[in-house]
Amino acid sequence: MALMTAQEYVESLRKLNTRVYMFGEKIDNWVDHPMIRPSINCVAMTYALAQDPQYEGLMTVTSSLTGHKINRFTHLHQSTEDLVNKVKMQRLLGQKTASCFQRCVGMDSFNAVFSTTFEVDEKYGTHYHENFKKFLTFVQDNDLTVDGAMTDPKGDRSKAPHDQADPDMYVHVVERRADGIVVCGAKCHQTGSINSHWHIFMPTISMGEADKDWAVSFACPTDAEGMYMIYGRQSCDTRKMEEDASIDVGNAKFGGQEALVVLDHVFIPNEYIFLNGEYEFAGMMVERFAGYHRQSYGGCKVGVGDVVIGAAALAAEYNGVEKASAVKDKLIEMTHLNETLYCCGIACSSQGFKTKAGNYQIDLLLANVCKQNVTRFPYEIVRLAEDIAGGLMVTMPSQKDFSSDTVVGRNGETIGDICNKFFAAREGVSTEDRQRVMRFLENMCLGAAAVGYRTESMHGAGSPQAQRIMIARQGNIQGKKQLAKDVAGIQ
Ligand code: SF4
Ligand code: FE
Predict the structure, then answer these.
(1) What is the pTM of this model?
(2) pLDDT tens-digit readout, 434-461
(3) How far is the C-alpha of 24 from the C-alpha of 266, rounded, in Å?
(4) Band of pLDDT at residue 485, cut at 50, 70 and 90
(5) Distance from the alpha carbon of residue 251 to the mean position of ligand 2, in angstroms
(6) Which of the listed residues 105, 200, 348, 457 should we mutate to test ligand 1's pocket, taking the one with most ligand atoms within 8 A of CB?
(7) Opening angle at CA 259, ends 257 and 264, nearest 5
């Protein structure tokens, strides 16, 4: 099958029997729900740009499995150039949506599961790698979106999966049958879960022998029997449900999405199983997936950062302060921080290496440094954006006030007249444009979009401490001590 268009992608979601709950109720037409639709538009952009000749080289690639032209989001990276192009593609998508476009988790899981299953089979003679290749061929041929599901609820963090009071705190096998397995559990804050055609489940931590039943990885359709999702709310999300509030929403067209995904006795046929009890490979799968996703943030967050910087510069222009040296310097600082993140994304990609399975893995140390910086710099970029924008971004009356006909003034002035008079921008700029840029910045800095730009920068792809553990492991302090000894003449 050819690449899907954006419209075909949206229509393909309607054909699924995905079970979505929000505000305590089942949502039947979730595709058109005003709180969900912006996140669908965002994934649709990964399809739309692949159809645009201008971006063909970045968005599409030749499949290593079939030789067909596929979307890069379903690709197994074949070189360091592929890894670099992945980051460039993510920056582009961030620039076009100013949101989390969700499809990367699937791409990152494809590459991690592909290489890990090869090494599991090598040791145990299992058939996981063949299973996975067949599954990925199906995904590529049908241009599907897949959620890479990793984060378990984890319950008591001091205890291993088998030690939890409730065994469902980590996804696990509850029944082994000749034709497959039955699984229970959940995955938290799953990016793009509802908007995905399929899911790949992976373990979330390294495991020991007693955790065998929890060391499991598999694919399943998003509407599998026994599977459902509870939608995650975001700050100011119900603005999307208000009438005449598209300016107040900030970014009305695009948005991110997270959900709790529940597996209640879901049957997984053998052909979709990629790990089943080989506990010592759980850590490898986690490390590789996390490494790829930490690389990803050196692309997507940079693209979103580009839009935030642009909006701050516009706010300065509309306020008439763009020539002030203090404002110029803040924009330079924001650019410096943002490009530093991009440097990290490009560096860990260009220093990548070939795995035993043949696809390319990023440099783990540099990818973890990348993500560690992402836990900090977007916060500083947002602080500077708020500084430049001024308090108006959070104190302005609503869009309805700006268009209100209700008379309030002595001379018959309406609420709309008064708002437009006192919130006027510099000459030559409409009040509405100023309103739009302020609300956009509010949205990015502390509204619904801040989920993707701030808190996700902190905790997505692993919280800061997870990167510090990896940096400690990969940092080679012993080697560095030896360097010091050699130069200082210490025997
Ligand atoms: Fe992609 Fe970034 Fe969203 Fe992860 S956070 S899915 S890398 S856009
Ligand atoms: Fe993420």
Answers:
(1) 0.97
(2) 999 999 999 999 999 999 999 999 999 9
(3) 22
(4) very high
(5) 19
(6) 105
(7) 150
